[in-house]
């Protein structure tokens, strides 16, 4: 993906710049996950501009190329629309909280194209916030948008640290989706499911 951006910035010799961009992104994530409380947020533009400042290259067009390279590779859970619709049928509000350095308008467009946007009452992206999950402020931003209290909310995610420990630390119940291989973390979810398809039945049982 970064090679696509590098082709815009340095079309004659993109490989060294692509490596610098990738290294900059890795350093960006490491600084936020490994330093301080491990939750500082930021944007893709900051990553690109940090490299552009060192290489004296114009960044115009690079972000669009980078995001466009992801376009064909972004997919959504085929059960998501039915699950979200089922939540609304039960009178529950739904929201999305995403750790991301991508901009809001990009996510919103992809969600709309997938038929998901209309089923999400609130969408919060950490590129708009000072902190990422698992920081409680990220969860508080979503709860405020939904106008619900932590004890009334259930958070569903596939990352034990970011999603489960973060949600529980903010006072929510947490459901861990175990179908993807992600970095482990010592935390016990309130429930675990192999995929999103079983969520409504689980929540009906809790209700």
Salient structural properties:
Rossmann fold; 207 residues; two-stranded parallel ribbon; single chain; 10% strand; three-stranded parallel sheet; elongated; 5 strands; 9 helices; mainly alpha
Please give the alpha-carbon distance between the first and last residues. Answer: 43 Å
Tell me the fraction of residues in β-strands, as a range: 5-15%
Largest sheet: 3 strands, parallel
Give the low-pLDDT segments: none
Total strand count, please? 5
Query: Looking at the structure, what is the overall shape?
Result: elongated
CATH topology-level fold name of the largest domain: Rossmann fold
What would you note in describing this structure?
By secondary structure, this protein is mainly alpha-helical. The protein folds into two domains: 2-71; 80-206, HAD superfamily/HAD-like (Rossmann fold). It is 48% helix and 10% strand. The chain has helices at 2-9, 14-34, 44-55, 62-71, 80-89, 104-113, 136-146, 160-169, 199-206; strands spanning 95-98, 122-125, 154-157, 173-177, 191-193. It has a three-stranded parallel beta sheet with strand order 3-4-5, covered by helices on one side. The chain has a two-stranded parallel sheet with strand order 1-2. It is elongated, with a radius of gyration of 18 Å. The relative contact order is 0.11.
């Amino acid at each position: 993906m970064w090679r696509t951006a590098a082709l815009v910035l340095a079309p004659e010799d993109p490989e060294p710049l692509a490596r610098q961009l990738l290294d900059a992104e890795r350093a960006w994530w490491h600084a936020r996950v490994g330093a301080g409380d491990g939750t500082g947020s930021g944007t893709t533009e900051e990553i690109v501009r940090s490299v552009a400042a060192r290489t004296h290259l114009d960044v115009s067009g690079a972000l669009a190329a980078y995001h466009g390279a992801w376009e064909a590779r972004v997919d959504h859970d085929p059960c998501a629309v039915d699950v979200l619709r089922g939540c609304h049928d039960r009178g529950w509000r739904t929201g999305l909280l995403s750790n991301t350095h991508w901009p809001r308008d990009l996510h919103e467009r992809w969600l709309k194209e997938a038929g998901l946007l209309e089923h999400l009452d609130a969408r919060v992206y950490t590129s708009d916030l000072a902190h990422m999950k698992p920081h409680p402020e990220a969860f508080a931003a979503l709860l405020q948008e939904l106008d619900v209290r932590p004890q009334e909310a259930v958070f569903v995610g596939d990352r034990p640290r970011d999603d489960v420990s973060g949600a529980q630390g903010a006072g929510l119940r947490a459901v861990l989706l175990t179908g993807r291989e992600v970095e482990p973390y010592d935390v016990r979810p309130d429930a675990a499911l192999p995929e999103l398809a079983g969520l409504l039945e689980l929540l009906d049982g809790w209700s």
